[in-house]
Structure formats: structure tokens, C-alpha cells
Amino acid sequence: MGFVFSLFKMVSVLFLGFLALNCFTEFGSNAQVLPDGEGMHTHSIIYYFETSWNYTTSDLVESSIACDCSDANNTICHVTQILIKGHNLTGILPSELGNLTRLQVVDLTRNYLNESIPSSLSNLPLTNLSLLGNRLSGPIPPEIGDISTLLNLVLEDNLLGGSLPSNLGNLGRLDRFLLSGNNFTGRIPESFGNLKNLTDFRIDGNSLSGKIPDFIGNWTKLSRLDMQGTSMEGPIPSTISELKNLTELRISDLSGTSSAFPNLEGMKVMEELVLRNCLITGSIPANIGEMASLKTLDLSFNRLTGQIPGTLEDLANLNFLTSLDIKQRQQHVGSSPIDLVVNVDCYLLTDLPCPRKPDREATTSVDGDDYEEDLSNSGPSTFFSSANKWAYSSTGVYLGNEGAPYTARISSAVNGSEFYRTARIAPQSLKYYGLCLRQGNYKVQLHFAEIMFSDNQTFDGLGRRLFDVSIQGQVVLEDFNIMEEAGGVGKGIIREFNVDVNGSTLEIHLFWKGKGTAAIPNRGVYGPLISAITVDTGNELSAGAIAGIVIGSCVIIILLLIILRLTGHLGGKDNENSELQGLELQTGYFSLRQIKAATNNFDSANKIGEGGFGPVYKGVLSDGMVIAVKQLSSKSKQGNREFVNEIGMISALQHPNLVKLYGCCIEGNQLLLIYEYLENNSLARALFGRDEHRLTLDWSTRKKICLGIARGLAYLHEESRLKIVHRDIKATNVLLDKDLNAKISDFGLAKLDEEENTHISTRIAGTIGYMAPEYAMRGYLTDKADVYSFGVVLLEIVSGKSNTNYRPKEEFVYLLDWAYVQQEQGNLLELVDPSLGSKYSNEEALRMLNIALLCTNPSPTLRPSMSSVVSMMEGKIPVQAPLIKRKDADQDARFRAFGMLSHDSQTNVSIHSHDSQGPRSTSIDGSRIDSSISLPDETQSHSSSRIASRKTLRE
């Protein structure tokens, strides 16, 4: 006999405990009670929930404790169900739950429970475990995979992390498996292919790796599949065609290579189809029109071409067709346009027109500034322009809550300006266009305040809103979390950017990539949110005034040039100036006066390092911007050439893992480069510097640094329009910002690799201990020389030791040689920095060390590309590091190379110390080589040739 005790009036923990302990009703004289042990455990569970509840009659369905009283002639009851939803329980999930041996249902949805999921739950015959919307953290206990009776496992919107246990693939009866809105990493285990009874699988918003597995084709009963914002790679596997019962399919934001539209033929019951930003190419298949129940179709941000099929006209239920990413392509819909409530949004790539007679706009004044109001509650796929200054484009529909508003408002006080009380929101993409702008530089301020979550310890405060922001097509904020950045709810925060406008339109794009929560406090609360935008355009001048200023300035400049020429100040430097000619530098120019003021006339107190071509100073400009100034030595003949190289190349390169160049200064004998200032100096100082300068780098930080360097090099070698070989990758040329992100610096030694893949260079530039043997000996230069140097740096980061200064035994010259020995003996983990203790992953450390050895292979052809290195580090492809024995490793070639350079340095090699911390007995990384050598002519044994390898950098 089973029955339910519903909580229908105001009760306290004490009363609920009493209810759970007795769980009784009267049948004559027989009282029904819980067994003593089970009653004690139930009381402990209630105690751990740490709260009292105010119940009303509306809680009858949401909260109950159910018992089975069929034992001992209906006198003994066992707890079979604990269902307490939406009551903000603030305790933990106690392990005592595992002692309620008849418990089948645990539903604690939308509370505030924290800590981890107890493994003792595996002792229970659970059919339903629902913990959606709590603060649970840590990994999923592998023991959960032993609950063979489980039908529903709902863990959405928590803080769970780590890899997914393969044991969960044992849950053969599982029907619903919901994991969205957590922090899971790694690949989806192959064992999940055994879950052939799944009807609902959701894993949105986790940081997974690898490709979408082929085994999803085994889930033939599936009706819903959600994989938005998972960071996985495409393409969508062909086996998806087996899922004929799908009604909802959502996949977005895949990386990797492009592919054709997946085969969805036969999916007749589809209602919502979202394949956003999945690198899909080609045309939209006509069989989409056979999905008679289709209501929502989102194919935005793909690479579609051709015509929109006319069969879509027959979809009577389709009321939302979001952007098909038309982008200047001629796409047509059959013979006539589709008649939808909301039609296609065509993204604009050209400048928007500037109206001659703008309408009067609605404005509001905040803190003395006038703002154009943006209060229109327009829906999905809308382009709206209220005046001549601003327009916006909003796309997307709130899945699960199509009636959700597109503006937000809060009546309570907000910490900040008045405009933080309102905000525009969008489910997917929100673009703002600043219109009628002149070409030039603008200061753009984006104002944010999270006003849709609460800031207390309740379920309403568990929401996480993450989105990206790009300006003029460049991502400036990634996975931006307003509440986290501002330090709470209802607090205003400003993010400021300097932006160049080359046309007449400024584009600000806020974009949701499927990350964060999507159902807290209600369904449909997610996506980008912004309160206000400020653009400082400077003073407005009439066309006549501008013309007068330009003409007057030109006259003055011409007169000054004539005077300087007559006085000889423009002569005598033809070589230097000729090197600067032809370079269209995309940088700013600073005067020497500005730089002297910023550095206090190059005060030694502001000196932060010593580069290969001169000192580096910290400076503060008049507007408060902190900069780093590299002062190139005028004594070196190579100085001007390297200066020109560095300006030209860096001005054309923009990447998060490259040091940003703000500008330059060329006055007299001063050659200056002005960079962004990086708070944590160089990687060399962090690893090998003096004790007071060393940083405690945990394993996750070291991984992040390694991956950052690899991504920066992959960009230089393969992704940028210019193919660049750095030639001097080492720890001193890697700088760390305040968040310990790695940025590659010092492109003065970089070599432009325009068309060819292989070069013989007569100018050897690099650092002993980091140079690839083929480059050091023969001047044979490819991007694989950088790969070799990266391998050495990777080894240093993992071991915490300098390649050139660490000698465990006399017969070993470099750390790399010792690594080969450890590899032969199967003791690679002996190389891991002892300061890490046991706080690192053996698997990850071995992967990094094997990558380092693979990169330092004596043969350049056997070294991987940097893009492959990135994939190996991310676990996307396996690492195949060959065993390199010292006696077979061509070590003599390496030593001959360095010996050759050392001999050559007696006459024409510049050697510099790179220890930015001042004098030391040994250099941090070894001697830097910058040499011109003669290469033997293989056809004439008694002659030599000098091959010129100079290239001019042009846009």
C-alpha cells in the first residue's frame, strides 16, 4: 500500500522531520512507522537541508515525501520518494540518502544545494534523479553508472565539472539524460553509444572537445538532441540521419572544417531545427520542406549559397525563420518570397545609408549626456532604426518561451547611472550600428548591468549569462559574464575600447554561443544584454573648417620640411629612411616628447627589462594608459633594419597571443616601439628569475601558457595573411599579462615567409639552446625552426628548469638531452617541476612532454605543424612522439652547429644577455646569435657563396 504525505501548511524543519520519521496514518489500532534506522537517516537528511519552508496549498504537487507501507501487514513504511522543488534549500546532499534503501525518486529541482553529489546514491534503486538548478560542484561520481534502474538523470544548470564518467554508459534503461549548463570537459565517452533507449539528451554550454561522435546514430529513439555551445568540432556526423524520431535538434558553434548540409531526410516530425554556426556550406536541401510540423528554423552564421527552397512555402506552422547568413549573395525563395510572420534577416556587410533628413529621435539625459532611447520591444529577426545615429538588428527566438520580452527593466535601485535600469536583450544575436560616422578613431564604451537575476542565496541567483562581443568584426570580449565582472547583480560596469572606423558605420555585435544557463530563473533568460552604448566622436567641425585646417597644416608641414632639408637635418640617413619607405604602417605615431614624459625621461627606475636590441621601459601616457617602450640601440647596424621589420610585421598582425603594438617613434637617433604593457613581465622571469620575481604557476596556468604560445605561433605560421617565422622563440620572448595569458613578443628577428616554404638564410638569428640544428648549421629556415624552439620552451614550462642552465650530469649539456634519457628509461614524469607536488595530471603532463620531444625531433620533416600541436594539446588528436635515442638523435649535428656559431662569434656575432633582472652569473636563456655566415657551394669544394635573403614587407 502506498500513499503520499503532502505538505500543505506552514511547517518548520522540526515538523517535517517528525512527518518523515513517522510517515504514518491510522488503520484501526495499527500505527504505521519507519524502521528505526531509516527514520534516523531521514532526520539527518532533513537536518542537512538547513532550512524551514513556508508551505501553502499550492505546494501540494511541488513538494512531497512518499512512502511504501506494504511491509509487515501494512505497519512498516519505507521512504520511496523525496520531492522538494523550488524551495531554496541551502544545505548539501548528505550521504545518508544512500541508506534509504527503497528510495526511487529524488527530485530537488530549483534549490540552492551545494557541494558534491554523494556516491552513496548508487546504493539506491532510483528511477529518477533530478537535481536541476542547484550549486552542486565536482565531478559526477562514476558509481552513478551502477544504478541499473535509472530512467531519468537530470543534472542541468549546476557547477559540475571534470570529464564525463564512462560508467554512465552502463545506464541502459536511461530515457532522459540532461547535462546542460555545467562545466564538463573532455570527450563524450564512447560508452554512451550503449544508451539506446534515450529519448532526450542535452549537453549545451559545456567545454567539451573532440568531434560529435558517430555513435549518436545508435540513439534511434531520440526525440530531442541539444548540443549548443559545446566547443566540439564538426562536421555533424552522417549517422544523424538515423534519428528519424527527432522533434527538436539544436547544434551550434562548431569548430573545425566545413561540410555539406547534413542528411535530415525522413525526419518528418521535426518541430525545431537549429543548426547555427556549424560551418555548413552549399544549398539548403528541399527536404526541409517535408518537415510538416516545423515551427522554428535557424540556419544562421553558416556559409550557405544558392536558392532558398520553395518547399518552405508549404510549412504552415513555420513562424520563425532566422538569418540564413545571406551576406551579399544572391539568394531567392523559389518564384515568390516566403510569407512568414517573421522573415529572413539579411546581415549587412556594407555601410548603411546615412539619411539626409533624419527624423526627430527620442532622447533621454543621463549625467549631463544625451542618449538616444532604445525602448522598442520588437521581436525576433528585426532591423530597427529610430534616427540617423543608431540602428540595431536583433535575431533569434527564445526557445521554450517564445513570449519572452526583448527588453528588460528593473524598478529597484541600481548601482550606477539611471540607464542601467533598462536593457536590451536578445536570444541569439544583437547588432548595433553607429551611423553617419567620419573615418577615424573612436572611444567606444559599452555599459552593462545584470538586472534579470537576483543577488541572494536563492534559485533565482544561480543564472549565468555568457556571451561574446565583437566590434568591427574583431572579438573584444569572449564568454563575457556581466555578473561576474561587475561583482554582483544590479551593478553597472563599463568596458571601453578604441576603435577605428574606415567607412561610415560602426558595428557592435553581441552574440550568444549557447553557454551559461537558459532556464534560470525562468526559461528564456539567456543571451546578450546591454544597457547603453557611448561613442566619443570628438568635436563636430564643418566641412569648410576641416578643409581650412587640412590646407593650413599642409602648408606648415611643407615649410618645415624645406627648412629641415636646408639645414641638413633630413640628410645623411638615406639608408634608414629607405628602409621605412613603402611600409604602410597600421600603427600610431608618438612624439619623443610624449615618450620622455611617459617614462620620466627614460628613468632607470622605469626600466623593466633588457631586450636584444636595447632596454625596455614602463611608461604612463597623459591619458593614463600604461605602455612598454622598447628603445632600440642606435649603435647596431642591424638595429634600423630590425626596427623596420618589427613595425611592418606587427602592424599587420592581431591575435590575443601576440603582444599588441600601439605605435612607434622615429626622431633623430631614437628608434622606439610602443607596446601594450604586460603586468607579469616575461615567462623567463616567472620560471627562472630571482626568488622575489618568480611566480607560483600551477598546472592549469602552465597549460594555459603553453596553449597560448602554440596558438600565437599557429597564427604566425598558418593563419595570418603574412606567413611569419619568428626565429627566436624562448622564455624571455614570451610575456604574461595580468591574467597570466601568454603573448609572444620581439618580432625584430622575424623572417617573412611569403611564397616559399623553404629558405636558405645567410643571416642566422636566434639563441643558443633554442635554435633548430638545421638552421644553426646550414641556415635552413622553415617554420619548423620555430616548432623546435617551442618544444624547448614547452619542456622548460613543464619542468620549471632552464634548457641551457640545468645540467643534472656533466655529460649533459642541455635539459633536452636529459629529457631524451628519461624518455628512453620510461621516466618522463621525472621531468615535471617538483614544486607542483602531486597537483597535476599525469596524463596531461605526459602529453605535454611527448609533444615537446616531438617538436624537437632532429629532423624538421618529422616535427608537427603548430596547428597540429594546438590540436594535440587540446586532446583533439593523439600524440605520437617517437622514441629518440641519444646515440641515434644526430646529437653531434646539434653540437657542431653551436660550435660553428661560437667560432664565428669571434668576428661577427653579437652576443647579448637576456636576463631582465640585472647581472647574474649566467644568462637566463643562453647567448643570442645574430650572424652572417658563408654557405659552402656543394658543387665547388674550394669556393663559397653568399646568398642574399632580404625581403621587403609590403601590404
UniProtKB/TrEMBL annotation:
It catalyses: L-seryl-[protein] + ATP = O-phospho-L-seryl-[protein] + ADP + H(+); L-threonyl-[protein] + ATP = O-phospho-L-threonyl-[protein] + ADP + H(+). Keywords: ATP-binding, Glycoprotein, Kinase, Leucine-rich repeat, Membrane, Nucleotide-binding, Phosphoprotein, Receptor, Repeat, Serine/threonine-protein kinase, Signal, Transferase, Transmembrane, Transmembrane helix. It is found in: Membrane. This is non-specific serine/threonine protein kinase. One of its GO terms (molecular function) is ATP binding. It is a single-pass type I membrane protein. The keyword Secreted does not apply. Pfam families: LRR_1 (PF00560), Malectin (PF11721), PK_Tyr_Ser-Thr (PF07714). The keyword Lipid biosynthesis does not apply. GO terms for cellular component: membrane. SUPFAM superfamilies: L domain-like (SSF52058), Protein kinase-like (PK-like) (SSF56112). Residues 602-884 form the Protein kinase domain. InterPro entries: Kinase-like_dom_sf, Leu-rich_rpt, LRR_dom_sf, LRR_Rcpt-Like_S/T_Kinase, Malectin_dom, Prot_kinase_dom, Ser-Thr/Tyr_kinase_cat_dom, Ser/Thr_kinase_AS. The chain crosses the membrane at residues 541-564. Residues 906-955 are annotated as: Disordered. Its EC number is 2.7.11.1. It comes from Gossypium australe. Residues 1-31 form the signal peptide. Its main location: membrane. It is an enzyme of class 2 (transferase). Residues 920-934 have a biased composition (Low complexity). Residues 937-947 have a biased composition (Polar residues).
